[in-house]
Amino acid sequence: MASESSSAVSPMTVEELTLAVKWSGKEHTVRVCGDDTVGELKRRICEVTNVLPKRQKLLYPKVGAKLADDSLLLSQIPLKSSFKMTMIGTVEDDIIVDQVESPDIIDDFEIEQDEAVDIKDKEINKEKLRRRIAQHKIVLRNPCREGKKLLVLDIDYTLFDHRSTAENPLELMRPYLHEFLSAAYAAYDIMIWSATSMKWVEVKMKQLGVLDNPNYKITAMLDHMAMITVQSDHYGVFDCKPLGLIWAHFPEFYSPKNTIMFDDLRRNFVMNPQNGLPIKPFRKAHANRSSDDELMKLTQYLFAISDLDDLSVLDHKKWESFDGVSFKKHRYS
Ligand SMILES: [Mg+2]
What we know:
Strand 5 (149-153), helix 6 and strand 6 (188-193) form a beta-alpha-beta unit. The protein has helices spanning 2-8, 11-14, 38-49, 113-121, 123-135, 177-185, 198-207, 244-249, 285-288, 294-305, 324-332, and strands at residues 16-23, 26-33, 57-59, 85-88, 149-153, 188-193, 220-222, 228-232, 236-240, 259-263, 276-278. The N and C termini lie far apart (54 Å). The strands form three sheets. The chain has a five-stranded parallel beta sheet with strand order 7-6-5-10-11, covered by helices on one side. Strands 2-1-4-3 form a four-stranded mixed beta sheet, with helices on one face. The protein folds into two domains: 8-88, Ubiquitin-like (UB roll); 99-324, HAD superfamily/HAD-like (Rossmann fold). The protein has eleven helices and eleven strands. The protein is α/β, with parallel strands linked by helices. Helix content is 29%, strand content 17%. Magnesium ion (MG) binds at residues 154, 156-158, 263-265.
């Protein structure tokens, strides 16, 4: 039975690899699969060494520069368990978090609805999500609250302009942030999910006063380690934020029906396209600070939809023209 099932799937893609990684005089073991990417391998190494993926240089006999390409599948690289991998890299300094090195702006691509459905339904991507669910723990800062919906928020360009410079980071905060979070908290638990590192997330949220505001609490914070790399026929390999990870860990509280996520990059929604709201990016804070009222308007939207039983039937792309009264009439008459 076992041999039958293992021959039924391609051994090249699902084969598990155990790799020995030498770093800073110590040896670590990481487990990956052939259908993981180099980027995913670096995340696993980050887990055991705390060296951020972007700071890792991997050395391995006979593979040349292949390990520098994060999008390459491990099955395309001749890795053998008899060789050891060496990683060169430094743990991010405890105090200095380099703002300039937060992820580069990569132009977002408009993923067609059909393609998004295709990506989320691909067995290989579902398997990656299952693996992430099994590996990744979400640390709760505050308990989940019965009967609340869930709001998941990106940081960079969503709540904060991380590319501009200012003497005081508060100058780069999106206007109405605290008013928005305070209002949302009445009906939604709030989680923060950034593609950067947890250190950066914590520094940023502390600087903005989000972690000690008396009017709301943050339920949890997630970083790049919670993301998965998905494969798409049209767009190649890229990272996204699968809400299924949260739903699997807290099924009694959160589901596709009561979760909404704001992000300026819509590819981050690709595993759950019905739950994502593409927010207008907040850039050039100094010029736009006096006029940006996106969070104020979104507060009204969150209120308007907060008593609906199923948020996933909405088209969040059209949030600005959402008319709650006629929506309910149309749906429930
Ligand atoms: Mg962003």
